[in-house]
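User: Sequence in, structure out. Go.
Assistant: Echoing your sequence, followed by the structure tokens.
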Amino acid sequence: MKIGFFTDNYLPHIDGVTISVETCAQALEARGHEVYIIAPRYPHYKDKRKNVHRLLSVKLPKSTGARIALQIPEKSLLDILAIDFDIIHGHPWGGGVTFLGLELARLKNIPYIATYHSIFEHYVHYVFYGKVITPKMANFLTKVVGNMCDYMIAPTERVKNALISYGITKPIHILPTGVALENYEDVEKGFLRRKLKLPRNKKILLSIARLGKEKSVDFVIQSFKYIHEKDPNTLLVLVGDGYEKENLKQLTKELGLEKSVYFCGIIQHRYIPRVYADADIFVFASQTETQGLVITEALASGLPVVAVADEAFNGVVLNKKNGFLVKKDPEEFAKKVNMILIDKVLYKKFSDEARNSIKKFSIEKTAFYLEKLYEQLLKEKEEAPGRRLHRVNIRQLRRFVVQARTQLMNYLEL
């Protein structure tokens, strides 16, 4: 099959969507398919893989480098229009590239499937600082566009339920993002300790997340204060970047932790398995995840996980088996981390179970199920070639456009 991955998040920008797109593309190509990746263009970045087509783009405000693609007539856009796709798969949602994929699928009368990677009502502050699109508007737009798709993929039951609550009536299939498990096995240690010049006798607590408010990295730092008081031999390493970085650094100073908390910045994903290899425990506090890919990677690396309890982690973090899910209380969170650090038997139990529990999330399984889903959609298309368009409430859609335009104009006048 010729598969078009239309994504608004891709290299060199690193996040869960980028990783999902790249690993899924590689796994599908390993199964004999041609995967074309359509993404925003980044200045001075050259792709190392074939079949990547870039569109002109502008930087997204209040982000760590993400860009918005523009559908301006140019050679790249004409090249994309000429590709004879069998199926188009949109990642993640609602940007210029995924909308282009949807319109192209409708134009060519081929199946369009979309993966809802993020619950966007939690992320509207990244679009013109939250002054144009409100959470309610994001949910309405999700409903309108979702019902134009032939099929939707949700990483977890939680996301599927959210989509249904928005009013999406199209079929929704639950398919977690897979991990290339072999990349996290028998990894050489020492990369992170050398990079940050960390003493060998120090225990490393690792968290990988964008440094934005929705990721609750401040809670991790506050919890680390109690962890460090109990065990001064611990360090906290934060991998990621974001607009909250300076505020978080200030918090570490206020708590007297500036010598024990390391802000590592963004690390290329090819080195991430070596980052996990040096860590002792993975800690995570976000409650806005659809799946939490970094948790899956940490478990694949054999790390016990302590995370704030959230529906997105059900079936991934197995409480008291491969880690702990705790309420959002810094002292309780710290207590569980210290418990694992102190009890070597418990640590080994959690570490062994981490690797065993994650086998069901292999990228090979994800690619297999995607392939079967694509084949099903193509078969349905052959049997019913006429495209039935979803009826949109034009009055509601017009109200949405007017509201967004008004808020955008108000923002631009600030």
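User: And one key feature?
Assistant: Residues 388-392 have pLDDT under 50 and may be disordered.
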